[in-house]
UniProtKB/TrEMBL annotation:
This is Riboflavin biosynthesis protein. Residues 186-311 form the Riboflavin kinase domain. One of its GO terms (biological process) is riboflavin biosynthetic process. It comes from Tumebacillus avium. Its EC number is 2.7.1.26, 2.7.7.2. Pathway: Cofactor biosynthesis; FAD biosynthesis; FAD from FMN: step 1/1; Cofactor biosynthesis; FMN biosynthesis; FMN from riboflavin (ATP route): step 1/1.
Length: 318
């Protein structure tokens, strides 16, 4: 997959000659099942025309640049987003450097001068796509403007789940409830976090349950504090585990959130290694214990519960 950074507002990368494509437009925050349907539609159109599939997206996220709340933490950091796009069959990704200047572009300039310079034969957008200064132009205006310069516009309807439109906002809401099973349905894959194993307080080993303290590589959107069934990718092997997200209130009064994973049936040194977590199920809320013995008993119960629930998942070593 080719990744092309777009820094010039009105003529791509200067003298670069862009080839015709079938292009999907959007922010693609999360690359959830709604986005996947849109990309699949673009891929289907591309197959009938023999053209590559391209995708136009923005970095940083427009809401972050515009100072709107909720987007300082990410569902899919840039590298992860590129990996998923490649898996979805995208051939070319145009990454627009989103700025206040870009946000101020008129709808006409966006279509005639910016989009036109990229030479898509067809653009595919969701029904609620908004563009132009203030995001006040909609798909009907996009269709009207684009077709004047020979670009077809294909509009994809909403994807709903349990009576709600699938969106990154909905996914963030469900993460805040700890409902990672539903998040997996909305994403079409388990919610993942990449991070490096760092030295912690080494308390888990003393309790009989050694843990890997994981420092996320990016400012991920984390689910609510609690204990989760996870799988962890270590050197290309998946291991089941129990993850605690929280502040360790039994031992601390601070509010710094940490991620500590106990891997089932794993032996070895993880310090300094980059690992990938996938959250599979919520086990319980985080709580404060009044003795070490009470905590050990609860961790033992959590591990047994995790082992029981593993039967509904496949491809995990334990």
């Amino acid at each position: 997959m080719e990744i092309i950074q777009i820094t010039d507002l009105l003529d791509g990368n200067g003298n670069t000659a862009f080839r015709p494509t079938v292009m999907a437009l959007g922010n693609f925050d999360g690359l959830h099942i709604g986005h996947q349907q849109l990309i699949a539609r673009a891929r289907g159109l591309a197959e009938t025309t023999g053209l590559p599939v391209s995708l136009l997206t923005f970095y940083p996220h427009p809401r972050q640049v515009l100072g709107k709340g909720g987007y300082t933490h990410l569902l899919t950091p840039f590298d992860e987003k590129m990996r998923v796009m490649q898996e979805l069959g995208v051939d070319v990704v145009y990454v627009v450097n989103f700025s206040l200047e870009f946000a101020g572009m008129s709808a006409e300039d966006f279509v005639y001068r910016f989009l036109g310079a990229l030479h898509p034969q067809t653009v595919v957008v969701g029904f609620d796509y908004a563009f132009g200064r203030g995001g006040t132009s909609d798909t009907s205006q996009l269709k009207q403007l684009a077709e004047q310069i020979g670009i077809d516009v294909d509009i994809v309807g909403a994807v709903n789940a349990y009576g709600e439109k699938v969106s990154s906002t909905l996914i963030r809401e469900k993460l805040s409830y700890g409902d990672v099973r539903l998040v997996q349905e909305l994403l079409g894959r388990p919610y993942g976090i990449n991070g490096i194993v760092v030295h912690g307080e080494k308390r888990g080993r003393l309790l009989g349950f050694p843990t890997a303290n994981i420092e996320p590589n990016d400012p991920y959107t984390l689910p609510k504090n609690g204990v989760y069934l996870v799988r962890v990718l270590v050197q290309n092997v998946w291991y089941a585990g129990v993850l605690n997200i929280g502040t360790k209130p039994t031992f601390h009064d601070n509010h710094r959130r940490t991620l500590e994973a106990h891997l089932l049936n794993f032996e070895g040194d993880l310090y300094g290694q980059t690992v990938r977590l996938q959250l599979l199920d919520f086990i319980r809320d985080e709580k404060k214990f009044f003795s070490v013995e009470e905590l050990i008993a609860q961790i033992s119960s959590d591990v047994r519960e995790a082992e029981t629930r593993l039967h509904s998942f496949s491809g995990i070593s334990y």
